[in-house]
Design brief:
Chain lengths: 208, 611
């Protein structure tokens, strides 16, 4: 009885895991790693991943009709102390919609920079692109900072790339949401492996 | 004498022994702490009136060399202040010698205190920022009636007393011996280490993850207090500074129920859960922030001890070796701080122990419970660092006799292979698809850039790899930095304890006298697995932590290889060596040596600095 219970439990785990994997495969997310959608306050958080160049851009597909604001959160190791301007351009349907500038010295660690947008109406299911570039960068040393959507993903760093005089941004990103399927599959095969160790039940014994 | 009277007498004797230990500890502690002050007839607090403070540099000149136990001053500063202290003192032969000490004065506290314990002629302290107000500079040579030394001596004497008193039981149940020694060292590390981050490797990041998992529910630990520990590294050296910072953290710990910074529990943070629980428990008991911070460390230690306890209990060969490895000073130090390395080490030890149990019980079928423990512990240990997952392949070595049928054996092993591949995919797929982010702490890093370089010049990369991973094999796997180094608190003043520890490991391997031994094939597979993990670690850090094109691989630390020590060293346990030994003498030697090693680390890295 106890062994059968164990066997049924393992079989249950296998079936649930298969179902969950199927659900995730049938309804995949289009860009799981690039945005989070907070529909309650109409804000979209965008991640800017690392690229070793002056300009950093990220595209995401808007899930809401009217984006009222975009929040960019920078993480810095030290207080940014360079004479540089960050230019932020926001594109929708390949058109420049918004343009902002932030003085790099004003950037504070872990602070939300809320950019209120006026022109991002009726953008549901449209590609939104956020582009960040540096102007007037002429300092020998630089302090790296990056943009993130999650307090979770901050890492502290500083970096100097004197040769190329480039500001290197690093984003320690969200793990791809598909990781969940990975772990689900692991549970599935783990349960299957254990199922191989269960002894045959009474019915099977009588058949023998 | 009746049996009842005998038990009563034993109890009285035991009580007297404990009282004697307490008294002895107090006398010893008093003498050790105050000997120099009394000898130099310099008891009391002396205010320094003559000094100069120019260009952020404080200069104190003494007409005659003066014994200074601690120098203290009060200050106000807008920023954290790095300082360098140049001290001219009389050495043991009376010769004037120079010494340099450095540290950081915290902007949030107003006291600067440094333990010197030297006969000093001149002190020069240079601060990197201007201090707004500096006053009350004084020498503290007060008699210390109660110090950290007292706590240390009590715990040391009680531990040694218990080892001798209950040696018959402890040496037959090595898991209890481990728990005793680990508690002795771990609890003291928690007591003496600062109530702040900056003691252990990346502990501010680990703390941030731990705190982030629960701060939604936790109204007793505010984001302001947590930020203090996550965003700045607050170093301090003495008891006074520790107390001041503790008070500061508690004072800013305003209840904050509307905290937006909540982290989701992702899979790679699974090894933080037990530490996070401390904050929930602390909340129930309305504990202060600093108490919850300490409780988090305690929960990590308890988790480590508990898992290793069951691993040592279960393992059929190399019990003494596992005990020694589980008591590596570096691991115990990390276990008593915010770190996920000790839980990983403990879980790998547990998985290996249960695996070996099943491996040697050839006549019994593989039990579901044991198989589940092996799989879960190895997979959970690999969640934060997937690099360790090849250890799961050990299950493939189990003979088919362990299964009901050949078919089931085959299916089981196929499932294990799939789990292994899935876990490997979590870090290999992002690498090959160029989605893996490099760690910018390493400099101008780029995974794709490094990968391109490797593929374009594979022979040059092989040379770089050999020059690093090959040359540093022993230094990283079992070097002094791996065995007895306490991160930012430094190492022991002597290397002797490192060599003593190495000899203990050799003894534990040689003197095991096992009744069974791993087959040649198994030894071969285990060594390949360990080598694979070793190479993966170097490779991963070359990709993620080393600037593109660098010829040295950065960021590889010995602690990454501690989980591999036991699986590697059991390869040398053989029946061909028979070690003649008198019963329990070896266990006694090893356990006392381990207590000694941990004590020296405690004294050098913590106690001498605190009091």
């Amino acid at each position: 009885m106890k062994k059968n219970l164990l066997k049924y439990t393992l079989e249950g785990i296998v079936i649930i895991s298969i179902l969950l994997v199927l659900v995730f495969l049938i309804f995949p997310r289009k860009k799981p790693n690039t945005y989070r959608n907070y529909e309650d306050n109409n804000q979209v958080f965008a991640n800017i991943p690392m690229e070793n160049s002056h300009t950093y851009s990220q595209e995401f597909i808007s899930k809401i009709a009217n984006i009222e604001s975009i929040i960019i959160k920078f993480s810095t190791y030290n207080k940014v102390n360079i004479d540089s301007i960050l230019e932020i351009n926001i594109f929708a349907k390949d058109e420049l919609i918004e343009n902002f500038e932030i003085n790099a010295k004003e950037i504070l660690d872990n602070k939300d920079y809320i950019i209120n947008t006026n022109n991002l109406k009726n953008v549901k299911d449209e590609v939104i692109k956020i582009e960040i570039s540096y102007k007037n960068y002429n300092n020998k040393d630089c302090v790296a900072f990056w943009v993130s959507n999650e307090y979770d993903d901050f890492q502290l760093t500083n970096n100097t790339d004197k040769e190329n005089k480039k500001m290197i941004i690093n984003y320690v990103g969200l793990k791809n949401d598909y990781t969940f399927i990975w772990y689900l599959l692991m549970i599935l095969f783990g349960a299957l492996a254990l199922l191989c160790l269960t002894k045959e039940g009474k019915e099977d014994d009588s058949k023998k | 004498m009746t049996a009842k009277n005998r038990i009563k007498n034993h109890k009285i004797l035991f009580l007297l022994e404990i009282i004697a230990i307490l008294c002895l500890a107090y006398v010893m502690s008093f003498i050790i702490t105050n000997y120099r002050i009394i000898k130099d007839k310099s008891v009391g607090i002396k205010t320094i009136e003559t000094y100069s403070f120019v260009d952020n540099t404080l200069n104190i000149q003494f007409d005659n060399a003066t014994y200074i136990n601690k120098i203290k001053l009060n200050y106000k500063s807008q920023n954290n202040n790095d300082w360098i202290m140049d001290v001219s003192y009389l050495d043991i032969y009376g010769t004037l010698t120079n010494k340099q000490i450095s540290g950081t004065a915290n902007k949030n506290i107003d006291i600067f205190s440094e333990s010197l314990k030297l006969k000093i002629k001149n002190i020069k302290i240079t601060f990197n920022n201007e201090l707004a107000d500096i006053n009350n500079i004084h020498i503290d040579n007060n008699i210390n009636y109660f110090s950290e030394t007292y706590v240390f001596l009590i715990m040391l004497l009680v531990t040694i007393f218990i080892i001798f008193k209950f040696k018959n039981y402890l040496f037959q149940h090595l898991e209890w011996l481990f728990a005793l020694i680990a508690s002795f060292a771990g609890i003291q590390i928690i007591i003496y280490t600062p109530v702040t981050t900056g003691s252990s490797w990346d502990d501010q990041i680990h703390f941030a993850y731990v705190y982030g998992l629960v701060n939604k529910y936790n109204t007793n630990a505010s984001i302001e207090a947590a930020d203090c520990l996550t965003n700045t590294v607050l170093m301090f050296n003495t008891r006074e500074e520790k107390l001041a910072l503790k008070n500061y953290l508690n004072s800013i710990n305003v209840k904050n129920e509307n905290n937006p910074a909540i982290r989701k529990l992702s899979y790679n943070k699974i090894t933080y859960i037990h530490m996070s629980l401390a904050y929930l428990v602390g909340n129930i008991f309305n504990m202060t922030f600093s108490s919850m911070f300490i409780l988090g460390k305690l929960f990590n230690l308890l988790f480590y001890i508990l898992i290793c306890f069951f691993a040592i209990k279960k393992v059929p060969i190399g019990k003494l070796l596992m005990l020694t490895i589980a008591l590596i000073p570096t691991t115990i130090f990390m276990a008593a701080n915010y770190s996920y390395d000790p839980p990983i080490t403990a879980l790998i030890l547990l998985g290996t122990a249960y695996y070996l149990y099943e491996y040697f019980k050839k006549e019994e079928k593989l039990s579901i419970t044991n198989a589940a423990i092996i799989m879960i512990s190895l997979v959970v240990a690999s969640c934060p660092k997937a690099i360790y997952i090849p250890l799961l392949l050990l299950l493939l070595l189990l003979p088919k006799e362990k299964f009901e049928s050949n078919k089931k054996c085959l299916y089981f092993k196929i499932c294990i292979c799939i789990i292994f591949l899935l876990m490997m995919a979590t870090f290999l797929l992002p690498t090959v698809t160029n989605q893996m982010e490099a760690d910018m702490r390493g400099g101008a890093t780029s995974v794709s850039g490094q990968l391109k370089l490797i593929l374009s010049s594979p022979i040059s990369f092989a040379k770089v790899f050999y020059n690093n991973a090959g040359d540093l094999l022993f230094s990283r796997v079992i070097g002094e930095g791996t065995i007895n180094f306490w991160a930012y608190l430094g190492g022991a003043s002597t290397s002797n304890i490192y060599y003593l520890f190495l000899s203990l490991i050799i003894l534990a391997v040689v003197a095991d006298n096992p009744k069974m031994e791993l087959s040649r094939k198994s030894k071969m597979v285990i060594s390949i697995i360990c080598l694979l993990i070793y190479c993966f670690t170097w490779g991963a850090l070359y990709l993620t932590f080393t600037p593109v094109g660098a010829t040295s691989i950065n960021g590889v630390q010995g602690r990454y290889f501690i989980p591999l020590l036991y699986p590697t060293l059991i390869l040398f346990i053989t029946q061909k060596i028979h070690f003649e030994r008198k019963s329990e003498k070896l266990e006694l030697f090893i356990s006392i040596s381990l207590v000694l090693i941990l004590s020296i680390m405690l004294i050098d890295c913590l106690i001498l600095k605190m009091c």
